[in-house]
Every structure is written in structure tokens, then in C-alpha cells.
Amino acid sequence: MSPDSSRFAVGIFIVLVSLSAAYATMNNFSGHPANSSERLYEELNAAFASHWKAWTGLDIKADRTRTGPGSR
User: Which domain of life does the UniProt lineage start with (predicted)?
Assistant: First the structure.
């Protein structure tokens, strides 16, 4: 194997590892919120649903969307 093809193979490997790490970070496989902002929104949704029920007597469920940044 020539030095250029070895560098190319290492470069491809690094790109694939980086992409797989980014994919795993973006898709939370454990079912738990990945960061504190997600936990905050879950708590806010629950608090709002509780407040709304006390105010109107109606049950609601607030879900957040699963779209990425820049989605339309």
C-alpha cells in the first residue's frame, strides 16, 4: 500500500467514525433526554398541562416536535 492510499484510508476511517458519533449524539437511543434543555421543556410541558387542567378542567398533552434545526 502506498503512503497516499494509506492516508486516504485513514481519512475515510476518521470521517466514518466522526459521522457515526454525530449520528449517535443526535439520535438519543436511551429514551432519556440528552441534555438539560430537553428536560426543561419536558418539565415545562408537564407544568403547563397541570395548570391548564386546573384552569379549564380539560386534559391536554403537550408534545415537542422531533425536527432538526432549519426544518420548515
Answer: Bacteria
Question: Total domain count for the chain?
Answer: 2
16 part of a folded domain = yes
- Among 25, 14, 26, smallest CA distance to 66 is for 26
pLDDT at residue number 71: 54
C-alpha distances in Å from residue 14, one per residue of 2, 9, 23, 47, 53 = 19, 9, 14, 44, 52
Judge whether residue 31 has pLDDT over 60: no
Q: Are 37 and 25 contained in the same domain?
A: no
End-to-end alpha-carbon separation of the chain, Å? Answer: 47
6 and 22 part of one domain:
yes
